[in-house]
Design brief:
Number of domains: 2
Order of helices and strands: EEEHEEHEHEHEEHE
Distance between the termini: 15 Å
Strand content: 35-45%
Shape: elongated
Radius of gyration: 23 Å
CATH topology of the largest domain: Ribosomal Protein S5, domain 2
CATH class of the largest domain: Alpha Beta
Largest sheet: 5 strands, antiparallel
Length: 200
């Protein structure tokens, strides 16, 4: 899953309607409710305050807030799902510009609003697993580096020997390391961790 660590805002104008998007990291539904309330107070004259909340696989909510059913909140939620996000709320404030967009136009507008805000955001993928440390001599480093391409390397220290700390989920790693290094490396389990990796 992926998360944001701070709030983001963006704005689109479509056929004279303004769509102002707020993305916020949230821990629970109560926090999301309070943020939505504060945005409503910030834009009391807006036509709609549509929202999508994605906490986890079991807690997902959306609101069309007066727009035709299924044309706002659900499309917003789908954008968050497609980006593999969690613990996030999107609120899109619409100031109606006098031109009707139709159901298809509304769906595209609300999707685009959230997608544009996500493009501005720094997104962090959440990786969980076991943190290991491997120590080896320099001649073995390239072989080990190739083996670790499928994992998340946390840090590498080039001193008298090479020390690599990395996150790995595959319990067969130790056997693979011993095979390619012929026992000339040491592998040590450090701890269970949750890492935030910034998405490119």
């Amino acid at each position: 899953m992926a998360r944001i660590k701070q709030s983001y805002q963006s704005e689109l104008e479509i056929k004279r309607s303004r769509f102002i998007t707020y993305l916020n990291p949230v821990e629970n539904a109560q926090e999301a409710k309070e943020i939505l309330s504060s945005i409503r107070k910030l834009h009391p004259k807006a036509s709609h305050h549509c929202s999508a909340l994605l906490l986890d696989a079991n807690t997902q909510r959306s609101s069309d807030d007066g727009e035709p059913g299924g044309t706002a909140g659900l499309p917003m939620l789908e954008v968050l799902r497609m980006a593999n996000m969690d613990h996030i709320q999107a609120v899109v404030v619409r100031y109606f510009g006098g031109v009707l967009l139709g159901a298809g136009g509304l769906i595209r507008a609300y999707r685009s609003s959230v997608a544009q805000a996500l493009k501005k955001a720094e997104i962090f993928d959440i990786a969980t697993g076991k943190l290991y440390r491997i120590t080896c001599d320099y001649p073995l480093y390239n072989k080990i580096e190739n083996l670790l391409k499928a994992t998340v390397v946390y840090q590498t220290d080039f001193a008298q020997q090479v020390t690599i700390e990395y996150l790995y989920k595959d319990e067969e790693l130790q056997q693979s390391l011993m095979e390619i290094t012929k026992g000339q490396s040491t592998l040590e389990f450090l701890k269970e961790v949750v890492l935030e990796i910034k998405r490119d």
